[in-house]
């Protein structure tokens, strides 16, 4: 298994776009990119705008060679909503667009998904020849109101992509991570640029995650 971060905050844009290569298959998780419209009272810098264009082109190029695409939720930094044509012909595993979803995401999904082959993935598992993909039940986006799903890809090792857990904050998010016992974890951290009240709880949860004995690599990014 090979894990390739394609775009992220640490790389200059708001994104968790991640490519996973498993044998001959290439799975793209959350192929989207955006910029924070305001940060500390400032608009995005022209360098950030340029980086967004670079990452958009990179995502579009990588999508051409992917059969499977996962969309953990319909926030615009997690799928290229301006390029719906890039997803035609792909097998999409997505956050259920009808159930356990807030109104704004349901609206975006309703505009994006028609004409595409998609399967609601909440709480489901999919077995392939040499690997499997497991999805969490719906979790709150941090403390809500938006809803997301997390992704576990299992081959010889386990890779867990949390999506926007913002910490994690909640006990059910933490329990899913601990039960998955990943070797590699891509963890969405807390939004420290906001007045994020449960930061102490997040720190406690992170310490529990670090006790996972199988954990070899952890990436903390986004928010």
Structure description:
With 223 residues, this protein is α/β, with parallel strands linked by helices. The protein has a single domain (2-221), classed as Ribonuclease Z/Hydroxyacylglutathione hydrolase-like (Metallo-beta-lactamase, Chain A), CATH 3.60.15. Helices cover 22% and strands 25% of the residues. It has helices spanning 46-63, 103-112, 171-180, 199-209, and strands at 2-5, 18-22, 25-29, 68-71, 91-94, 117-120, 125-127, 132-135, 139-140, 147-148, 151-154, 158-161, 184-188, 217-221. The strands form 3 sheets. A 6-stranded mixed beta sheet has the order 1-2-3-4-5-6, with no helix packed on it. The radius of gyration is 16 Å and the shape is globular. 37% of the residues are buried. The mean pLDDT is 95.
Question: What is the topological layout?
Answer:
Layout: E1 2-5, E2 18-22, E3 25-29, H1 46-63, E4 68-71, E5 91-94, H2 103-112, E6 117-120, E7 125-127, E8 132-135, E9 139-140, E10 147-148, E11 151-154, E12 158-161, H3 171-180, E13 184-188, H4 199-209, E14 217-221
Parallel strand pairs: 3-4, 4-5, 5-6, 12-13, 13-14
Antiparallel strand pairs: 1-2, 2-3, 7-8, 8-11, 9-10, 11-12
